[in-house]
Amino acid sequence: MANTDGEPLSDRERSELDDLRHRMTALENGMHPRAARHHPLRSTGSVLLILFAALLSLLSVVAVWANSIVRDTDRYVATVGPLASDPDVQKAVTNRVTDVVLAKIDVDALVKQLQDAVAAKGVPPKAAQLVGNLDAPITSGLKQLVSGTVERVVSSSAFETVWVQANRRAHTALDKALTGEADGAISLKNNEVAINVGPLVAQVKQRLVSAGLGVAANIPEVRTDFVVFQSKEIGTIKTYLRVLQIMGSWLPLIALLVAAAGVYTAFNRRHALMGAALAVFAAMLVLGITLTVFRDVYLDRLPPGTSTAAAGAVYDALIKFLRAAVRALGAAALVTAAGAFLSGPSRPAVLVRKGCRRGIGALRDVSVSSGLRLGAVGRFVHRFKRWIGAAILVIAAIVLFTWTYPTTMVVVWTTVIVLAGFAIREFLDPGPAPEAAGPRATPAP
Question: How open is the CA angle 237-243-248, to the nearest 5 degrees?
Answer without folding.
Answer: 115
